TrEMBL record:
Transmembrane segments: 20-44, 64-88, 100-119
Cleavable signal peptide: none
Membrane topology: Multi-pass membrane protein
Entry keywords, A to Z: Cell membrane, Membrane, Transmembrane, Transmembrane helix
One Gene Ontology term, aspect cellular component: plasma membrane
Compartments reported by the entry: Cell membrane
Organism per entry: Okibacterium fritillariae
Predominant location category: membrane
Protein name stated in the entry: Integral membrane protein
Amino acid sequence: MPLEPRQSDLPRIRGALRFYQIASVITGVMLLLLCTEMLLKYAMGFEIELGGGSGFLGLVPVDTVTGVNLSTGILIAHGWFYVVYLFSDFRLWSLMRWPFSRFILIALGGIVPFLSFFLEAKVGREVKAYLASRAERANTPTEVSH
């Protein structure tokens, strides 16, 4: 029988879910930016430059960036947001007391394009439904036999 969240953890689950949902969307967007940047760099030979010789924002050939290398910035930002995403995943996973395989599946959302968006919706629905059913069970009086 799978473990259920502790009664004392129920108030924290909503906050953990919200944190996970925000981190999931940010990480998913950053991953899509990273994929776009990698296509530009490795398939087309361009990097994204901010404030260099090409104006405010421009595409320049690889290794000719004179301003801020936005391509590297996207890479670093995604890496850090993925760490935050993993933390939010761990927090929700531990409060919900899911199996470890569930943690791994959700963690893949930060490295498989578009997966974080699907998982965010699915996990959100599932956790909200669980919390609603748990609240309903708590409000339902139990029958007492005499």
